[in-house]
Amino acid sequence: MPRVDEALAVMQRAVATARTERRDVIKFIHGYGSSGEGGDIRIAVQKRLREMESTGELRACIFGEDWSPSDARTWALLKARPELKSDPHLGKRNLGITVVVI
C-alpha cells in the first residue's frame, strides 16, 4: 500500500504522462479504503483532482459515484466519447474510481 504522498505523486505523473501522450480521458482506480469508510488515498486524490479542476488544470473529474449515464457531466462525456459506454465501471457507482478529462 502506498502512502498518501506517494499516491498523489503517482497521480500527478499519470496526468502529466496523459498530457504528453495527448490522452484526453484517464481513469484512476484509487480504491475506497480497506476500512470501508473511504480511505485517506481516495480522499486526498479526489481533493487534489477537485483543486486541479477548479484551477483549470483539468477540464473535469467525475467521481465513481457519479460515473453513470444519468449524471449530466458523464452523459456529455459519453456523447463526445461513445467508446466510453463500454467502460465496465459505468453505472456501477464505484466509489473507488475517478474519471478525469484532461
What fraction, in percent, of the residue positions are helical?
A: 40-55%
Uncertain runs with pLDDT below 50, 5 residues or more? none
Mean pLDDT: 95
| CATH structural architecture | 2-Layer Sandwich
For this structure, the CATH topology is: Ribosomal Protein S8, Chain: A, domain 1
The whole-angstrom Rg is: 13 Å
The gross shape turns out to be: globular
Provide the spatial order of strands within the biggest beta sheet: 1-3-2
Biggest sheet statistics: 3 strands, antiparallel
Count of individual domains: 1
Helical stretch tally = 3
SSE succession = HEHEHE
> How far do the termini sit from each other?
27 Å
Beta strand %: 5-15%
State the name of the first-level CATH class.
Alpha Beta
Layout of helices and strands:
Layout: H1 4-20, E1 25-29, H2 40-54, E2 60-63, H3 72-80, E3 97-101
Antiparallel strand pairs: 1-3, 2-3
